[in-house]
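Quiz preparation item.
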């Protein structure tokens, strides 16, 4: 039996940034429901979700994850359509203003 050459990274290292996500306290529909909307309603939903993202301290990590793995909803300050354009090379990788400093999660603060 062949032994693995390299073990995968622990998942906690890959997803620890999600502990700091501003959207954790919000209904998931605010970031995904626009998939069923059209026109002005969809634009308002996307704009509202992106405004949350632009205040989020982990927007860069979220965007990198979303470009690799997420085809629906608003992630990392981008819509699904915008991420498809970035992946296809027809839109540049967005540069966001520096995010606010990370604050300890409730678990980190308690320890
Ligand atoms: S960037 Fe937006 S979708 Fe990503 S974790 Fe932050 S609030 Fe959530």
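Solution:
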């Amino acid at each position: 039996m062949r032994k693995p050459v390299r073990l995968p990274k622990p998942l906690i290292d890959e997803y620890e940034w999600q502990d700091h996500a501003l959207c954790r306290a919000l209904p998931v529909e605010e970031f995904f429901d626009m998939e069923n909307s059209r026109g002005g309603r969809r634009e308002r939903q996307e704009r509202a979700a992106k405004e949350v993202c632009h205040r989020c301290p982990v927007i860069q990590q979220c965007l990198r994850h979303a470009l690799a793995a997420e085809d629906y909803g608003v992630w990392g300050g981008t819509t699904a359509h915008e991420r498809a354009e970035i992946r296809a090379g027809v839109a540049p990788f967005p540069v966001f203003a520096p995010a606010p400093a990370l604050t300890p999660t409730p678990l980190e603060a308690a320890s």
